[in-house]
């Protein structure tokens, strides 16, 4: 059976991830993501009215027109987790394939919401929710298995495609967190077993492979957030916290710390409400009873007016805007576009890193500079990454012992860094280690 790996998107950049695996005449697509910064959008992304061809031209979604030249039919679209750079292009591209979309229950719910909001295309692909530890028969030759993983969004998995020639493991976005705040640690026993059964190819993210050591556990971020928030138990000023609205375990930590110091946690922002209410409905998280959430702009402003009136010291607003995005709650507050007035001694806690591109750095700088002019105290980098570091990758490769390695999810600097790392431990470039660019493919011999 011919096995071919086709790099559709995410091999020239971080984002718009999409990889196709052809096994004989059957094709399985992994992820269909958006590249957020290309359309100057972040978690409040609003591309519902845009055409896929325009988005492809803007390099915002994968150029899947290359799939027209691939012989065979797509049997399944598989998503590893619910971040927009992995599922954001589904409303624009999935309808071209007569195949079910398979993902974990939380990811499936986020995909359902994405499809419901789509204005341009009708997406009628069947959605199938598969839990970690379960299998799905794609065809007599191909079986899909979801192996439990950890990342900065809940319900993340390693999709494993079992073929007659061995397993193909797709590991785009993971960390080997042994002490997660939500969910179980990755299923190391199953990964080891799959390694013994035989892994033909590993498609693996390369975002943080240049960082030495191990990626700190989410438990470390919880301690950083708790130390900061609980130290202001008797403070009368405002405490705002901004983090990724999809980072449910971090939001849970912030909400619990607010509750601990006698303040009510308030989630503000459309994406905050969307991600958190979906997680709550699926019973994947339990927030403190005192928590409330508001997404609609008018309701958000009304809530901010109420906080001013009732007393800033009674609430901890958890808000969007850590990248300084225009229109996000924190940006609007800092720019004076809401009823909330920042005053000397108020605090803004950033529990997120700036996503590295010049636009984000500029926007974030502007937000911080304006806040500081009002006398606001800034707390930065109360955060840990969701991506594996070098030693995690080392352990991961030794668990799976793949015959072939394909670095993905990164620009040439990142995939090149992964290649350098893999060569150090015995892989040979061009033989069993393959660097691909968008639009390229490799036949696994």
From TrEMBL:
<dbReference type="InterPro" id="IPR011108">
    <property type="entry name" value="RMMBL"/>
</dbReference>
<feature type="binding site">
    <location>
        <position position="81"/>
    </location>
    <ligand>
        <name>Zn(2+) 1</name>
    </ligand>
</feature>
<dbReference type="GO" id="GO:0003723">
    <property type="term" value="F:RNA binding"/>
</dbReference>
<dbReference type="GO" id="GO:0006401">
    <property type="term" value="P:RNA catabolic process"/>
</dbReference>
<dbReference type="InterPro" id="IPR004613">
    <property type="entry name" value="RNase_J"/>
</dbReference>
<feature type="binding site">
    <location>
        <position position="151"/>
    </location>
    <ligand>
        <name>Zn(2+) 1</name>
    </ligand>
</feature>
<keyword id="KW-0378">Hydrolase</keyword>
<feature type="binding site">
    <location>
        <position position="85"/>
    </location>
    <ligand>
        <name>Zn(2+) 2</name>
    </ligand>
</feature>
<comment type="function">
    <text>An RNase that has 5'-3' exonuclease activity. May be involved in RNA degradation.</text>
</comment>
<feature type="binding site">
    <location>
        <position position="173"/>
    </location>
    <ligand>
        <name>Zn(2+) 2</name>
    </ligand>
</feature>
<comment type="similarity">
    <text>Belongs to the metallo-beta-lactamase superfamily. RNA-metabolizing metallo-beta-lactamase-like family. Archaeal RNase J subfamily.</text>
</comment>
<protein>
    <recommendedName>
        <fullName>Ribonuclease J</fullName>
        <ecNumber>3.1.-.-</ecNumber>
    </recommendedName>
</protein>
<dbReference type="InterPro" id="IPR036866">
    <property type="entry name" value="RibonucZ/Hydroxyglut_hydro"/>
</dbReference>
<keyword id="KW-0540">Nuclease</keyword>
<keyword id="KW-0269">Exonuclease</keyword>
<keyword id="KW-0963">Cytoplasm</keyword>
<keyword id="KW-0694">RNA-binding</keyword>
<keyword id="KW-0862">Zinc</keyword>
<dbReference type="Pfam" id="PF00753">
    <property type="entry name" value="Lactamase_B"/>
</dbReference>
<dbReference type="Pfam" id="PF07521">
    <property type="entry name" value="RMMBL"/>
</dbReference>
<feature type="binding site">
    <location>
        <position position="409"/>
    </location>
    <ligand>
        <name>Zn(2+) 2</name>
    </ligand>
</feature>
<feature type="binding site">
    <location>
        <position position="86"/>
    </location>
    <ligand>
        <name>Zn(2+) 2</name>
    </ligand>
</feature>
<comment type="subunit">
    <text>Homodimer.</text>
</comment>
<feature type="domain" description="Metallo-beta-lactamase">
    <location>
        <begin position="15"/>
        <end position="232"/>
    </location>
</feature>
<dbReference type="GO" id="GO:0008270">
    <property type="term" value="F:zinc ion binding"/>
</dbReference>
<keyword id="KW-0479">Metal-binding</keyword>
<feature type="binding site">
    <location>
        <position position="83"/>
    </location>
    <ligand>
        <name>Zn(2+) 1</name>
    </ligand>
</feature>
<dbReference type="InterPro" id="IPR001279">
    <property type="entry name" value="Metallo-B-lactamas"/>
</dbReference>
<dbReference type="InterPro" id="IPR055132">
    <property type="entry name" value="RNase_J_b_CASP"/>
</dbReference>
<dbReference type="GO" id="GO:0005737">
    <property type="term" value="C:cytoplasm"/>
</dbReference>
<dbReference type="InterPro" id="IPR042173">
    <property type="entry name" value="RNase_J_2"/>
</dbReference>
<dbReference type="InterPro" id="IPR030879">
    <property type="entry name" value="RNase_J_arc"/>
</dbReference>
<feature type="binding site">
    <location>
        <begin position="383"/>
        <end position="387"/>
    </location>
    <ligand>
        <name>substrate</name>
    </ligand>
</feature>
<dbReference type="Pfam" id="PF22505">
    <property type="entry name" value="RNase_J_b_CASP"/>
</dbReference>
<feature type="binding site">
    <location>
        <position position="173"/>
    </location>
    <ligand>
        <name>Zn(2+) 1</name>
    </ligand>
</feature>
<dbReference type="GO" id="GO:0004534">
    <property type="term" value="F:5'-3' RNA exonuclease activity"/>
</dbReference>
